[in-house]
Amino acid sequence: MNGENQLTFALWMMTLHLIAGAGKFRAQLEPKAVVKHVSESLELVCTALDCPSEAKFTWKTLGDITIGGAMKSNQMTSRKTYSHLTIDDEKTVVCHVDCGGIKEQRKTKIQVYSFPSDPVISRKNDLTLMCTVRSVYSSEMFELHWLHGDTVLPGGESTFYFSNGVQDVSSEYTLSEEYLGKNITCRGTLSLSGIPEGQNIRSVTAQYGPAFITTSGNTTVKVGEHLELRCDADGKSNILWRKLGKSEVTLLSRDKVAVIENVTRSDAGVYECEASTELASRRSTVGVTVQGLPNVPTLRHSHAGNPRAGDYVTITCDADSDPPVQLTISGASLNQVEKQSSSVSINIPSIQLKHSGLYFCEAKNEFGSMRSSINITVQASPRNSTVLVYPSAEVMEAQNITVHCSTVSFPPATIILTREADGFEFRSPNGTFHLFNLKSEDKGTYRVNFTNELGYEVQTFELIVKEQQTVTPILTKTLVPAVGSVSLLTAAALLLRYLRRTKKNSSDFNLGEALDM
After folding, report:
1. What is the pTM of this model?
2. Average pLDDT, stretch 460-464?
3. Cβ neighbour number for residue 136 with a 10 Å cutoff
């Protein structure tokens, strides 16, 4: 056989061998079924068995969509690797194998679940518990149940909260007080075939509140004594003492025994002991009475500020005491009011200025008495105004007068005296006005205005100023001639005397000398 025939024979034998080998080729994909927890890793291995040539591999989904992930292939094997599975990886994966033109495919279903932690029981309120499981997938196959021992408790709805594909599942359950002190279990079950044993069921058990609680102590003490309150509960409970107030709660102690040294009146009231576990609590209260001197009574009236004349006013006195007190209200123009009570009131239907003044309240018991006071000032517009003119409203020119004005009011009134003729105003800080050296033009009507923020009152008076009379000097005119006549008569008498003396001696006469005589 020559060389050409030998080559032809070899090619023919190879073809027969390939045909014979191709008939045995098959594909294999492992694992055939996958159930993995979120975040776990996964490796899929696709193998071309009895493929005489190098195989070609392609990874896709059933929808013929190429999938991601790391892939590593050689002549006979391809590996698809997931280092961190997510919910998005949950799908059917198909491995396509091409062996020298002959194609086969194998598929496997990847199922992903998430159940990473045990349930957590918390307390929503005094009787309602909440059980929560975080990051569950798939919730359609998940259930939460409440149990006491092995008995499943009826009821309890689950609520689902979505977050990035996984879900938080919660269930609330309201228990009756008969379960206090007993163990309660919350159990979560994920019903997915293929989950490793022990990973599909998780549970938590806790005691629902304390089994018992008792309180004791001396609940009646005197001011200055020692107060001790005791609270007992089962050994797993935390103890908390509080004092309950009208508007606030005061923490007293975190110990079983609460102690108050040197008790005061303010320590009286209701105290609460709370014994609690992680899931529930029990409470017990005890009332404490403190005996001693009454508290200083509180005296008040019904108005925010000073009442106005005519207002309806209630005056009230309150005092806390044990033993009870005798309360007495007195003061101003009121009759004394007494009452055996913690509160006493007196009504003034129409308060007046006469009711202004100090009011007192006295609280008295067998230990002694305490007293308080309040000042009430009644506001009123000017009234009962008077105007007095001294010495008189009828005077002569150049005289002085004083005008004294007074009124009853609060706040104090401003008093202005006005001369109506020209509107001139006189002002005085005390209601007394001095008018000096009056003239006739000062006569007329004068108006006095009494004013405060609540009102005013007006009084008027008439001022009469009389002119001085001009007197004619008649007395002076008659006096001068009379004096002259006397002088002439005197001169004449002297002259006659002189003439008689000189008749015998001489004939001359000196008027001047005669006058000198």
Report:
1. 0.48
2. 95
3. 22
